[in-house]
Protein: Probable cytosol aminopeptidase
Amino acid sequence: MDVTAEPLASSDAALLAVAAFAGEGDQAPPVLAGAAAQLGEALGVDLTAELSAVGFRAGPGELARVPTRGAVAAATVVVVGLGPVERAGTDQLRRAAAAVAGAAERIESLATDLPGAVTDADAGDAVAAVVEGLLLGSYRFSAYRSAPAAHQLESVTLQVADVEAARTAVHEAEAVAGATRFARDLVNTPPQDKRPPALADRVAEAFAGTDVRVRILDEQALVEGGYGGILGVGRGSSEPPRLVELTYEPDGAERSVALVGKGITFDTGGISLKPSESMETMKMDMAGAATVAAVVRAAAELRLPVKVTGLLALAENMPSGTATRVSDVLTMKGGTTVEVINTDAEGRLVLGDALVHASELQPDAIVDVATLTGAAVVALGERIGVLMASDDTLAERLLDASAHSGEPFWRLPLANEQYGERLEGAIADLRNSGSRSAGTIFAGLFLHRFVGEGIPWAHLDIAGVAWTDEASGYHTKGATGVPVRTLLRWLRAG
Structure:
């Protein structure tokens, strides 16, 4: 992706893109943004009149095409709506860029001044938002298509005021968007090609030649280490579980964090078998692990001054004659015993082991990421994730990062005083499932029991936001990559 200070009219790109704000009132003409008016002059047309004539009102993501009639190299100008000017910000730019990416899907080259359309936004943030929108909006998972993918956009030029500053923002945004696309690829991969050993190996290959150390604990190492939760969940599968440890440790690191990801490569529910319609998307039950791998990858690429340890707890939850039964008792890493009330509440079991492992590293903070509870989807739907935390400062910083990234999360209380007694098992220290009410809080309280004392901890339940059944904005159908950008923003903010 290139940057230039030259006007759009001088570009040799096959497609030009500019923006407009919605006017005040339903029938008001659009208000041209950035270099749109200047481009209209170069074309010799009244761009506002042209847009009004076709009923373009510049709603968020709305598109209009204007022929150039040979006045410039491009055959067409695309105008994208940003909505009302008072609501415009970086996420509107991100969504507008994704809409432009869709319009340019079969075009070789594109030039746009979108980064300068919202003058109130920080220039670097605006450039980053446009780059992210273009790269995420153009994402397609086509690895399993029999026919090659249609020709995709190859060259993009951003028209900006400060070229050098924009180059830095482009580099950082490409790393962030690339990590998000990597996470999407892992989640979208069919389950037969990412069973625990295969997924562990694929992740290791992705870090070959980087500054990240990779350690894979196989089933023997898990037995020797006492990882009873991971082993118990994986017991029903013909493919054994794995725990992958990724370590990025730059010289002079200012702080250390541990990221823990749930990696159930396919979730049938085990003996507590899911209904068939609930299994259709269960290849995405490793989205937490994919997120963690992607974040560590980008942290290394961006050379962030933070030690980041990523733990991917990988298992396949299958029913069989060797599977964990309801009422079995598992001994977790660290010695806590857990009575299994529901084998479909397996994510918290693999995470519990990984959280103990993370705590032994004594990081400054631990964040776990998991498609953990259906209750999170009931509570907040498919557009907002759940955040729970033991530390207010950590929670606030993560919420700030999520707001900046356009990946909303809502904080729920741990509420140990109200619900903590539900964790107590009848014949073991804990039970892995409680009543239907407050299911997300119960799961968070369960996880907190495995975090070392005094270590700030946060839990991101992404059950509703890791996957989408319909394309929207810069989220294409399938894996979303949420919350890769949130966690990277948090790490970069310090």
Q: What stands out?
A: Residues 2-147+160-175 form a domain with the Leucine Aminopeptidase, subunit E; domain 1 fold (CATH 3.40.220.10). The first strand starts at residue 2 and ends at 4.
